[in-house]
Amino acid sequence: xxxxxxxxxxxxxxxxxxxxxxxxxxxxxxxxxxxxxxxxxxxxxxxxxxxxxxxxxxxxxxxxxxxxxxxxxxxxxxxxxxxxxxxxxxxxxxxxxxxxxxxxxxxxxxxxxxxxxxxxxxxxxxxxxxxxxxxxx
Length: 137
Hints:
Blueprint: H1 11-29, E1 34-38, H2 55-73, E2 77-81, H3 86-101, H4 120-131
Parallel strand pairs: 1-2
């Protein structure tokens, strides 16, 4: 599922969307296998995307994906490297791999402001309105 986000969406926005949209959808769908298109261009240092995710959130997101794969599909999970640039890859990939391995994060990234977080409740309400005819949210 693609969820369009505004400039400056960061850690808080991503984690709330993961908990309130992605996890319930996975729970209802109950996949046999999880395939992650692992892009790191949402990192705050990527000037093209304009997002504000840190390496810390990549660890959290991948840790949660591992838990979902354990719960619903016997740990069957593959992550394929997609995109990102220098700092996003340097800070995101090691933390994603650490989460996949079940070890502590290896990179601590700078905290950055999540300029989109004040809009997250409206976005979630709109997403649920659009998705409710098809999914139980």
